[in-house]
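Support reply, case 0932

Customer input (verbatim):
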Amino acid sequence: VRVIDHMNAIGAPFAREYGGALATRSFGGVQVSRTYYTRGQTGQQLQLSTASALQRQIHLGTVEIFTHNEMVDLIITETDGEKRCEGVVMRNLINGELTAHTGHAVILGTGGYGNVFHMSTLAKNSNAGAMMRAFEAGAYLASPSFIQFHPTGLPVNSEWQSKTILMSESLRNDGRVWSPIKPKDDRDPNTIPEEERDYFLERRYPAFGNLVPRDVASRAISQQINKGLGVGPLHNAAYLDFRDAIERLGQDTIRERYSNLFEMYEEAIGENPYTTPMRIAPTCHFTMGGLWTDFNEMTSISGLFAAGECSWTYHGANRLGANSLLSASVDGWFTLPFTIPNFLAHHLNEPPLAEDAPAVQVALDRAQARIDRLMNIKGSDPHGPEYYHRQLGEILYFSCGVARNIEDLKSGIEKIRALRKEFWSNLRIPGSQDEMNQVLEYAARVADYIDLGELMCIDALDRDESCGAHFRDDHLSPEGEAERDDEHWCFVSAWEAGKNEGEFIRHAEPLTFEAIPLMTRNYK
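Our regenerated output:
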């Protein structure tokens, strides 16, 4: 409640009831209206509000911002065997200059790593670079294979597509998900009679219907597509149909609720969702894994904190709709304002690390060595890093996507290792590192994605059960649903980087449940 009030105070235009109270609506995974919203633009409006609040602090001089800079390494000191993070190395993306910035603590709020899949709903500049630098420095990565595939993404329609587009899950309040009962039925969906439609979510989950959680809906849609019942030019989607809602409520009501989403869909796909059913498909969206933190949001490296999606904290093996505000804001606005001062209290009157300290130079040299290694590959491959990124995404979607199994995961690990060898042998980066070299930046990200992708497959292979977004099709209940193994796997897998490339050490943190007992929810 405090977070909602805070966002409201800094300008987020939440929807309101006629009397002025903040309005709520239902979302996937629940049968009550629990979600505050801003039509179909909630995430965008929260971003605009917080960005405006940040710009105000920059103008007041309380915050200094470094645009066109990216964090490329951490400054780590070590005393009596204990590591402590005391700053970062940044690279200016315009002129290539490396600079060191020291401080008493470092907070990473760099977002999730869904772009490891190449095709995802994330902005293309959202990457795993900062998280992987922390991992290499000794921070643990928790549950990296817990990836949420959002059921209402727009399907890939062409090979040249660089990303996918997310439609708000709120559409499932009024839209009905279905597929034809005949394989590769290319008829106009409006001409397919009712008896030849399979409203499979309503059929399989009558208690929740189209509002089952995201992981359940994505699995069901994928199963229909894999049966050959997909729709669209590539037969890789299901329909999301508003015909019945428009007949029941009227087009004006549906336009009031979803007009911006419908306009975005029509601009992207070229079809009018008021008259033609939308096409949706599961697509990589949210990462529940990330940097392991304690209850103070500090990683396994003292002084290094993680907030938001780059940490592993709140969602477990699945994320319910609208829970991103919980991880992004409770970390940032509730927990950290208390834990950071508590950490800093032990370092009162202690000056920040000097910028000419040995640890600073070590970090600068390490960052430069990483750049030099990429620039010195001197391969003959003309494709560039995007070629390897796309191949990695195809491997991960097949081996570590909506459904996983032992055979595909083992095959995926071997394919990723072969891809790494090809990348470091054949890549060629044109130009100089002392300029805005976008190929160099992209290559650095792809190198991180390859390492992360391997760890994701290893984590998914290691966790020998189905659990939320980690769906192993070799661990199914008699009804064909995900089957957990709480007796053997009720712990968090926290991975540590080994000394050799491709070496990972798993630590198990037991999970305990006191206020609410551990149980399996039934959506039928």
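We compared this against your earlier run and they match. Two observations from our side: The CA atoms of residues 120 and 284 lie 5 Å apart. The mean pLDDT is 92. Please reopen the case if you see a mismatch on your end.
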